[in-house]
Each structure stands twice: as structure tokens, then as C-alpha cells.
Amino acid sequence: MAVSPDLQTQINELKANYDESLDTIWMLLAGMLVFFMHAGFSLLETGSVRFKNAQNILAKNLMIVTVGFLCWYAVGWTAAYGATKDPNKFIGGTEFFMDGFFDDKTKFRNWFFQAAFCATAGTIVSGAVAERTQLKGLGIFSIVLTSFIYPTVAYWGWSGLGFLAYADGDKSVSSFRPAYMDFAGSGIVHLVGGVAALVSSICVGPRKGRFDGTAEEQAEFEAHNIPFCVLGTFCLWFGWYGFNPGSTLSMKTKDDAFKAGLVAVNTTIAPCIAGLLVFILRANAVAPKALDVGGFCNGILAGLVSITAGCGFVKPWEALIIGFVGGLIYQGCSMLLRKLKIDDVVDAFPVHGACGIWGVLALGFFGNPDEGMGGNGVFYGGDQLGTQVMGVLLIFAWTGILSLAVMAPLKRLGMLRSSDDLQTAGADVAKHLPKMASWTPNTVAAAEHVKTTPEKATPEKTETEENTVV
């Protein structure tokens, strides 16, 4: 039975509206899950610092999220996705402050989803430099990171116009032959945040007394609230199901659904094996040779970062291997930072930087081109590895050089590191009101005893009672 042209037009319009609604619902839900990851970051970082700095790290996380979204609104989206009439392969240059969005309203959902990724890259840094970094210095760096450093990398790999991935006829290629592959951002998001965290940790220096004194004195710097760390890890893992499956960017066909299902499976398997591996290693082979729940948490996150680039291109058994190697890389890098006396409070670089590198490089090895999932690994005769290596090198160099260019002047101007007195007193008591993150009888006396300490106070030989019990 023939369908009249008018009826067919109505059917096509209904289908287009239905497809658009499905894609919007999918991306908004995924974006909300990614946004919820900031609750996980906040819990994890609060549990990892000492009690006297719990409120301060929460303030920094709130600042980075709010500043990050506003920077993305003003110029971040422009740099990452604002294609010009004659696009270049380095950076975007249109749609400042959402200019033109009402001409193509699909950009609103994309803006929200990608903004959540941008804020995530910024939040990675705050935990690494916790307990000894001034709020204003971190705020300035966050503006640069979310306005320029991260958006430029996103343009290279995700805009479809950058030199790491652009269209050449009906194919996607790069300046290094095959197009760069990074499904949900092991390199574009996590490596950017991890390298920025490493440079920031080196520039600001270790916390006062972090690598001095006896083992008992060093125990003071251990995480003060493991339940927060575990809850934060589960929140991050939960949010990752928006981060990775949501990166299909569409949910209107059965192929979209199948891809999202595969991504969800891989996002489950890799962190399981990585977390268990780190837990077993720390219990039996490496320090502390005890049941380290905090290490278990970071091992899980290491597996999640490792599979983020390849989650849509590899089979579950490959995800298992990628997660296993990610756990080993995290553990080795964590031990190396301690050996070098680089004070990364939450192991941000071992988790996000080192495992971000591995996640990107893993796609150079795994992913069978014959499976039809987009893989191109050398284990199957593919030629992807060279592009993945170049992607890692460029992202590392870009983020590292620009982070240093911001952090070094801030350090020189005295706007980066908190004074020794403030570190001794604790930022909550010295700078915040109320003067403690939560009330306990012992902390009342401590709050009344310690006077507010200016950022540039001259160090004095005073001791302040520190409470480490929530």
C-alpha cells in the first residue's frame, strides 16, 4: 500500500523528532552522571587529607567546578568546538558565550555534556596539591586549564577538525596517518588533568614535614577518613557509566545501544581486576604489606582510566588485560613518586596521568579491525600505535609546558604555596568559618586555641593540636 507524500513527510518529521529526543535524553542523563563524579572527587579528596583541611579542599572543588563551567561558557567551548568558516587544525574560534546556539539547538546538549568533561579535568589537579596551596593560585590555574589548555586538546582529538582527527573524504585521519583514537578521554581528559597535577605538585612542593621525621610522624599524613574514600570511589565509578557509555553521543539506533552496552561491560571489568591487583600487591609484596583499602580504591580508579580510551573498541577479555596492566602501572608510578619525594596527595598523576598514557597506548596494541568495532591494534596487523604515541607526546608536552608557564610565575609572586604556619594550623581553622568541617569535642578547643594565620606569615616554632578523627 502506497503512502501519500504528505503522510510520509509527517512520518519522517515524527521520526526525526523522536530521534532528537532520544539523543538529548541520553546525553543529558550521561552528562548528569559525569557531573555527579564531582561528589566522588569531593568525598575521595576530603577523606585523603587531614581533618584540619577537609573544608578547604571542598571549597577548592566547588571553586573549580563553578569556575570551570563559566570558563567553558565564555571561551572553552569556542576553543574546543567553535569551528570557523575556514577551520584550522589547532583551535576553534567562534561561538563565544554560546553565540549562534539558537540557530542549532542541538549544541545545548553537547555543550552540557562536554562542559562536565572539562570540569573533571580541572578537579583532578585539586587533590594532588591539597593542604598547601593557596586558593587564589589554584583558581588562576583552573581558569587557564579550563579556558585554554584542555579545550585546545579537545579540539585536536574530538572536534573532527583537529590535526589528531579530521575528515579526509569519507575517512577520519590525522597528521600521523590513522586518526587518533580515544573513545572517552584517557588522553584528552585524564592525561591532561594528570600532567597538570604532576607539574603543580612539583611547583608547589611537598607539604611541610611530608618527607621528614620518623615513621610515626609520617603517619600523620595518611588519609584521615577511609569511609569517605570508599564512598567517593563508588560515586566516581557510578559517574563513569555516564563518562564512557555517554560518549557514544547518540542513542537512537540498535547499534548505538549495542555499543553502549559493550562500553558499560568494559567499564566494569577493567577496574575490578586493577583494584584487586593493587590490593593483593600491597597486602603481600609491596608497602605497606597490609590490607590497604585506600590503595584498593586507587587501583579501581586506575583501571577505569586505563579502559576509558578503548572501552568502545575492544572486547571484554582485552579490557581485562588493559585493566591488569593499568593496575601494575599505577602501583609502580605511585612508588616512584614517593621515591622522588613528589607529594601527590591523592596519587592523581599515577591514576590519571600514567594510566591515561597506558589507556591511549593500549589502543595501539588491542582492537581487531576485522571485528567492526573500530579497532586497529598492532596485535592484529593494524597501524594505530604510531598515532597513539604521537598523541601522548603532544598532550603531555602541551599540558606540561603551559602548566609550568602558569605555575612558575604564581610561585615567584608568592601566590601558590601556603605558609608553614598555615599548614601547621590547618586551613580550616586559619581561613574558614566555621573553623571545622564537622563538630567534635576535641576540635572545639583546637579551633579556639589557634589564631587566624595570614598566608605570608613568618614561620614560628609553635605546635597546634591536630585532630584526625571525624
For the termini, the CA-CA separation is 73 Å
CATH topology description: Ammonium transporter fold
CATH homology superfamily name? Ammonium transporter AmtB like domains
Q: Which architecture does the CATH hierarchy give at level 2?
A: Orthogonal Bundle
Shape designation: globular
Number of helices: 15
Beta-strand percentage range? under 5%
- Please identify the top-level CATH class: Mainly Alpha
Summarize the main sheet.
4 strands, antiparallel
Physical arrangement of strands within the biggest beta sheet: 1-2-3-4
- The secondary-structure class comes to mainly alpha
Low-confidence stretches: 451-470
Helix content: 55-70%
Polypeptide structure, described:
- Helix 4 packs antiparallel against helix 12 (385-412) and helix 9 (293-308) crosses helix 10.
- By secondary structure, the chain is mainly alpha-helical.
- Helix content is 63%, strand content 3%.
- It has a four-stranded antiparallel sheet.
- It contains 15 helices and four strands.
- The protein has a single domain (17-412), classed as Orthogonal Bundle (Ammonium transporter fold).
